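Limitations
The C-alpha cells in this dataset are predictions for the assembled complex, not deposited experimental models. Users should treat interface geometry with appropriate caution, especially where small molecules or nucleic acid strands are included. An illustrative entry is reproduced here so readers can see what is and is not provided.
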Amino acid sequence: GAVVSQHPSRVICKSGTSVKIECRSLDFQATTMFWYRQFPKQSLMLMATSNEGSKATYEQGVEKDKFLINHASLTLSTLTVTSAHPEDSSFYICSARVHGDNEQFFGPGTRLTVL
Amino acid sequence: SQKIEQNSEALNIQEGKTATLTCNYTNYSPAYLQWYRQDPGRGPVFLLLIRENEKEKRKERLKVTFDTTLKQSLFHITASQPADSATYLCARGNSGNTPLVFGKGTRLSVIA
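Predicted assembly:
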C-alpha cells in the first residue's frame, strides 16, 4: 500500500520557538494532504486541507498564521508551528490522498512537546 | 452538521470471540464509510471502505456493514486475537476532495 512518512517523529522545544514537521508521500503523488491534531484519548481533529500549489484551507478555530502549511510539491507538505506554546503540545498527523481516490493514507505522526 | 458517533469508548472481549464495533452517523448518508486501526502513538492504518450502495464488505477476518436505514455501520472481527487490541476509528466521507470526519474511536482489548 501507499506509504506516508513524517519527520521528525518526536520533538521537544522551548516555548516561543518554531517547529517544522514534514509529511512525504513516498511511492505516490498526493494531490491533497490533510493535517490533523490529536489530544490524548481524543479523535483526530482536522486542522487544514492542503492542495498542491495552492493555499491551504483551514478549519474554523485554527489560526493560519500560527500553523503555516506549505504544499510545494506532489510529495511534500510541511506544517510549521510558529511561536509554539505548551498548549500546542499534541500529536500531529498528516494524511495524503490521490485525486479521485477515496482512501487516505496516514503518516506515523509527530509528538510535539513544548516546554 | 455531519457527525460520526462511536458510542462505546472501550470494549473488552475474550480471545476467539467475534468483536462488534458500532458507528452511527447523523444527517444525510455519507458516500462511504472507512474504518481505521490506530495503535498508541501511531498514525491510523486504513482497513476497509464501504460505499453507500454496498451492504457488506469483507477482508480476511474483518467484515463491515452499511445500513442506511439505521444510519449505522458495524465492524466485526471474527476469531479475535490479542494482537487485534487497538483503537478502531470510523470515518465518513463524501466524493470529491472533502476531508474525512472521524469518530472518537473504540478501544478494543482482546483478552487471552
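Some entries come with short summary sentences. For this one: Chain A has a mean pLDDT of 92.
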